[in-house]
């Protein structure tokens, strides 16, 4: 239960069979007994907690555990008690109480709502059911819906101060919830904008790096082209030099051959011819 939320968990005894079978009636009576014992243990536990102290706290914990088990037993008995007669309002109301004490707020709210909407029930019971239906919604943080339930309770019992208090408290919680949602939405938007900005910055950085890579690649290509041209130029120069050397060797060889030929011709002209006797 939320702090400061006043409850109207008055227990409804059943003194008549209504349309229920004897077995169902017996089950409801067992539920009533378990619920009453649980409420007594819970009250004792709350008193021990208020006194304080390690021993009292430990005893209070034990009593609350026992109470929880009894609330569970009461729930089971009430459900058996309505196995056939599901629309028995007083049993539904007590079932809702046992569910609420177990903090099963959604299930409890459904039972309270059923009782509250049955117009044949007396106004007092319906007002309490609407009040507790509002509490069940409040504990689920459904503040707007709880406000509507409290308003319905006040229409049936305008003088109920606890319901008026819960109504105002629910309004404050709803405003806080809306403010928190607005802040969360703003934070989400800011986070999204920041993420988008970071993504854009990263994209720009990646694009810049890609551009730099392209630029470096172009520079490398230009340098490779220059190196290739230089190598080709060196090869042409070497080829030309080799050709000049070869031409010079061939020229020297021709000149040498020419000298040799001229020398041989000179020697041949000076030789004496023997007479033919």
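^ structure tokens above, recovered residues below v
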């Amino acid at each position: 239960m939320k702090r400061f939320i006043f409850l109207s968990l008055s227990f409804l005894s059943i003194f008549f069979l209504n349309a229920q079978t004897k077995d169902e009636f017996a089950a409801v009576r067992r539920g009533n007994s378990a619920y009453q014992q649980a409420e007594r243990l819970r009250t004792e536990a709350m008193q021990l907690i208020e006194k304080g102290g390690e021993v009292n706290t430990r005893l209070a914990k034990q009593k609350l555990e026992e109470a929880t088990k009894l609330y569970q037993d009461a729930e089971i008995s009430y459900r058996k008690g309505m196995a056939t007669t599901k629309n028995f309002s007083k049993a539904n109301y007590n079932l809702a109480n046992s569910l609420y004490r177990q903090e099963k707020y959604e299930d409890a709210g459904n039972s309270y709502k059923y009782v509250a909407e049955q117009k044949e029930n007396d106004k007092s019971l319906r007002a309490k059911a609407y009040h507790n239906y509002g509490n069940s919604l409040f504990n689920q943080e459904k503040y707007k819906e709880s406000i509507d339930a409290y308003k319905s309770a006040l229409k049936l019992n305008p003088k109920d101060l606890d319901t008026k208090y819960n109504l105002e408290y629910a309004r404050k919680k709803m405003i806080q919830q809306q403010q928190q949602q607005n802040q969360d939405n703003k934070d989400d938007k800011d986070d999204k904008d920041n993420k988008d900005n970071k993504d854009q910055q990263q994209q720009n950085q990646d694009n810049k790096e890609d551009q730099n890579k392209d630029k470096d690649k172009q520079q490398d290509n230009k340098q490779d082209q220059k190196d290739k041209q230089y190598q080709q130029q060196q090869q042409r120069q070497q080829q030309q030099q080799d050709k000049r050397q070869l031409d010079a060797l061939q020229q020297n060889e021709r000149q040498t051959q020419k000298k040799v030929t001229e020398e041989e011709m000179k020697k041949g002209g000076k030789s004496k011819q023997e007479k033919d006797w």
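The CA atoms of residues 258 and 264 lie 10 Å apart.
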